[in-house]
Amino acid sequence: MKVIKKFFLYLFLIVILLVFIVPFLYALYNSFLPLADVDKLVPFSHFTVDNYVTLFTKYNMARWIWNTVVMTLIIVLGNVWFTTMAGYALAKFDFPGRSFLRFVVIVTMMVPFQLVVTPMYLTIVNIGWNNTMASITVPYVCQCIYVFFAQQYFYSIPKEMEEAARIDGLGRAGVFFRIVLPISKPCLTTIIILCFTGTWNSYFVPATFLTDEKLFPIVVGLNTVKAKYFARPNLSLAGVILLTLPVLVIYIIFQKWFIQGVASSGIKE
Predict the structure, then answer these.
(1) Which of 50, 146, 154, 170 sits at a 20 to 30 Å CA gap from 266?
(2) What pLDDT sits at residue 137?
(3) What is the pLDDT of residue 93?
(4) Which superkingdom, per the lineage (predicted)?
(5) CA-CA distance, 111 to 72, in Å (whole number)?
(6) For residue 269, what pLDDT is reported?
(7) Is the pLDDT assigned to residue 229 strictly greater than 80?
């Protein structure tokens, strides 16, 4: 009976794996083919890197990648810094208005971004940030979903550990930076992966606030390529591979702590 259960479990996992990996392999395969060979089985001799060369020679692909890297780094580092401190304060500090702030965090997560994009756009225009890197980074360096996630994780840290550190002479800041953060790798890693993925693949925000092609991140830039070369899917798929690889690398590097972070984020003392 156990053998049968294992068989169907592995069969199910293999099916799920194929669902996710086949589209990636399809894009990777066709990204190395000339237009005439797209969707055909061809020998290795037909493979070419011309699609990638075209992206970097005829378009600002290097600049788009650099813009995406800068945007992602600013937002990821900002969220790691601000949301962990906010989450720790909401989880461990007892101060007037804490329950209200928790409520605000949860309610803010429930509001669709489309409802606030218009007032946000008007605010950005009024302060002169329209069509600048600040417009797509500064408003997103502290996102409520990561505050909530960090708060839930910090609930799992025993009070006794913090009290022992306080007895040894550490202040609130010392406890947080020297005790709590070093043992919060699962939480930090999960925030990094989720924030990195969401920012790296962001389209709506940059497409709304940016009109200068030199400031486009890679997703918006690739959309211009698709609009111009709609009949050349191999070129678009080469861009998709360039967009996907960094996300895969980040996940492979941090997957161990990511799984731990997801598993422990719902624990509350």
Answers:
(1) 170
(2) 93
(3) 86
(4) Bacteria
(5) 23
(6) 47
(7) no
The domains of the chain, with CATH numbers, are 49-264 (1.10.3720.10)
Q: Are 223 and 39 in contact (CB under 8 A)?
A: no
Residue type, 182: P
| CA 80 – CA 184 distance, rounded (Å) | 11
**In 3D, which of 86, 98, 262 has the Cα closest to residue 191?**
262
Q: What is the pTM of this model?
A: 0.84
Amino acid at the residue 248: L
Q: Compute the distance between CA of residue 200 and CA of residue 244 in angstroms, rounded to an integer.
A: 9
Cα 168 from chain centre: 38
Average pLDDT, the chain: 86
CA distance 151 to 88: 6
| The pLDDT value given to residue 87 | 93
Q: Pick from 228, 81, 186: which is nearest to 142 by CA?
A: 81
Residue with structure tokens 């259960």? 5
Q: How far apart are CA 168 and CA 250, in angstroms?
A: 37
